[in-house]
Amino acid sequence: MKKTLITGATGSLGQLLVSALKSKADASNIAVLVRDTAKDLVKEYESQGLDIRVSDYENTDKLKVAFEGIEQVFLISGSDLDARLQQHKNVIEAAIAANVKHIFYTSSVRKTESKDAPLDAVISGHAKTEEAILNSGLDYTILRHNLYSEVVPMFIGDKEQLLKTKAIYLPTENGKVAFIPRKDFAEAEANIIVSSEDYRNKIYEFNGSTLFSFEEISEILTDILGEKIAYVSPKVDEFESQMKTAGLPDPIVGMLSMFSQGIANGEFNFEKTDIEKVLGRKSQSLKDFLSQVYA
């Protein structure tokens, strides 16, 4: 494998990707970009022989130094919606300056790029980052993700909460999502990194093998929990009002509302997927995932 640097290596996806890569490549060819070398996980990476590089997305000069000797950069998209486009551009600029050859980017599937769409705050940053990568002159692999399976418990609550409310309350209407767990993304993307020439200058859409609505999720959870879990899809205004009354912070209410509206609009309803070919199998079913989480 070519010398590859993973950004966001201490995050949820980054940790899984590093773990998957370690089983496929020599640790000396894996570099991780971190901000805080005092973290236990970073010390663990160092003890495993990984190459520790220090910087954040804001400091282009430090990024250039961190990218020295790196052939491939795997850019895991930043989580700060307001700042991440510039952060991504900083990474691209530093990669060019450091003579990196290939950049990978975790983007998002979408059906619309309209500024009026509920998910514009998310999608516009991805679309503009993709454009910057395509115009950079670097070899690229763009990996458009559907929603993580892990967002389901984040959206609807844990087992204790569900058994208390006995309902899923989200304005997702009849919208369906091709969920995929992070571990499947990580496995597929590790496969791509170690065989990067086969995936050079291509865009892939990673969708789950099966589509699910939240009404179907309520039926799955009814079976898992042995209690009837209802599905209620309120109007958006009512949902936001109820969530604020329940004490949820405005940013959380906004995030839930934005993604719920995107789901209702079919933004994550994709039947075609490229991940099965990369994995050599179907993605983990949401039913199996939920059985593990809510058992």
TrEMBL record:
<dbReference type="InterPro" id="IPR036291">
    <property type="entry name" value="NAD(P)-bd_dom_sf"/>
</dbReference>
<dbReference type="InterPro" id="IPR052718">
    <property type="entry name" value="NmrA-type_oxidoreductase"/>
</dbReference>
<dbReference type="Pfam" id="PF05368">
    <property type="entry name" value="NmrA"/>
</dbReference>
<protein>
    <submittedName>
        <fullName>NAD(P)-dependent oxidoreductase</fullName>
    </submittedName>
</protein>
<feature type="domain" description="NmrA-like">
    <location>
        <begin position="2"/>
        <end position="286"/>
    </location>
</feature>
<dbReference type="InterPro" id="IPR008030">
    <property type="entry name" value="NmrA-like"/>
</dbReference>
